[in-house]
Give the backbone structure.
Amino acid sequence: MMNRYNLALTLFLILVLNKSNLASTTSFVVTNHGLVQGKVSHILNGDIHSFLGIRYAQPPTNNLRFKPALPWTQNWQGIYNATYYKSSCPQYSSKWNCLDYNKELLNSQPISEDCLYLNIYTPIPNVAGNKSVLVWFHNGDFNCGSGSLWDPSALASTEEMVIVTVNYRLGALGFLTSGQDSNTDSEIPANLALRDQQLALTWIKDNIVRFGGRSNDIGIVGSSAGAISVGLHTVIPSSGSLFTSAILQSGTPLSPHAIKTKNQAQIIFQQFTSATNCSRNTLNLTIECLQSLSISTISQQQEAILSQFPQAFTPVIDGQFIPDDPKVLLSSGQFNKVQIMLGSNMNDGSKYLAPLPNITKGLSRAAFKTNIVAQFSNFNNVTLSAMIYKYTDWTNKTSLFSNRAEYEKLYNDYYYAKPIVETANLYSSYVTTYMYVFAYRTESDTYFPSYYGVAHSMEIPYVFGYPLLKPNNLKLNYTEHEERISKHLMSLWGSFIYDRSPISRVSTINWQPYVADTRLYCYINTVNSEIRSFYIADRVEFWNTLIPQINIPLQIGTSSPCSTVTQPSNLSTNSPNFTTTQSSNLSSPIILIENSTSTFDDDVTGSGSMSPFPIDFSESSLSTSDIPTRAQTTTHDTSYPTQAQSCSDIQMMKTIFMICTFALAGIIGVLIIIIIILIIKLKKSKTAVA
């Protein structure tokens, strides 16, 4: 903290500098750590003061690697230069987890472990805080991205608010954990990246008044992984005092790829330490080895693991920082009570088309089924049957384009629509909640093929005013209509942060809160958005109502990898990459084994048994050839790396053991009968002799 002499000197320097010729291009603010120099840009309605790359934590390097970040407590040496972006965090960028229009910017920035910085954009610094604050957590599947990916200057200018974007650790550096129960130095705690975000929020709350923001009026906003982060902070008790509203764009804490269990995290830890040759006799020695590795070695092994298990490095239910399954916490009202806005894009699921070969030509029927079985490898065969049936265009089931469209719908519904509606139902039981669906595709967009539709993250440029800002790194020619749509979204987002009520200055839309009974949501496809109800209800309820009753996936990370466990949580239909627990209701009327008229191969059902699903699949190509065997799949199995791979062997051993047990019991029974007969005969013979 600054002493009085330094504070007086700093204030004098601000007066001098702001009176000088530098005032038109630079800006100065006093923080708790000293004087910070930013830059001034004229954006749309006025000047925006940008303070870029402000350090909020000590560098998480050397012995601080794989440890919770420590707050920055020192004073700056001289004037802190905040006129340029600092390093982004080390990351893994694949074709489909980091958007093409982000990569050019990412590639132009330095990468370093010393990356815990934030960026502030404000209309009026050095004024007693009177502006609402929006804090942005970036997208990127927790594996790539940066706080500098998106320039929010237009939103800050148009809505006259202070906006902060945040860097946080990614991949293994942000989510590897030893999975221990205690918070000691001899462990790697879970959720380091979320702890980074929390530390940034603490810094913002302590310092934002100097930048014109209100410390008691902070809204946290994010898209995709950023939205999952926002949702998780609503259930993290220690984050409760740090924000007052939340917006979740295309992601929630109930998303199938949002979280993993402690057991799953421990398995990944074992895989990672083995791959890096850091497995040691004690955890302390293992951590010391991990801290000594080069960043290139860490990145290389991280990439190898992610290529097989895309959700390896994600948040963990550790029982402490995240105290329980988010669904349990939300259902019971154990979360930070702030007003919520959440939604998704109409075709969020199209991002999952990217890894498929020759997808531009469509998707064959065989590839459609093969990929579903491969990617949802922990789902039972009844569930796979239902999924393939539900997501088939029966009027044109052999069409390559129809199969591609249905494949996108399946992934969109499972990863986005289902959890968005389920989360809205839970939030709205306790706090005012608004839901939206973004349904407008940019006319000139060349980053996403036309068959991607309204793709994942396509709403972000509109929220940040890119159609008006027209940044050089985004090669799009926005129309005047799209400029109005951007103004529409900026006013909705801005008014929600300001007043907790989304109101548009360019539309007369009357957006009513979401409640489970009516499920009202704002359908945004033009400036004149519509209020609709029950978003794709038949498809959403397929996942939220039907699937939990018929799917009994394998439990992992237990002493019996082939067992199932009942658990009332959102993990019941978790990501196909995470084989998890499942709550089932086998007495449900929909389970009608005797009514099924179709049989499947032994490879499909395990024993050639009839499918316990009340639909005749015999004509619908869901017969023996419809669901390919696991061995036939061509894409890699993204199931979690556990004992589940040897489950069939264990089941066979169990079967043999049971047969032997029954046989032995039978033999013993026969012997007992023989002995009894002999005893009876012996008694009779003795009686006869007597």
The longest helix spans residues 647-689. The CA atoms of residues 121 and 547 lie 45 Å apart. The chain has two domains: 4-331, 339-539.
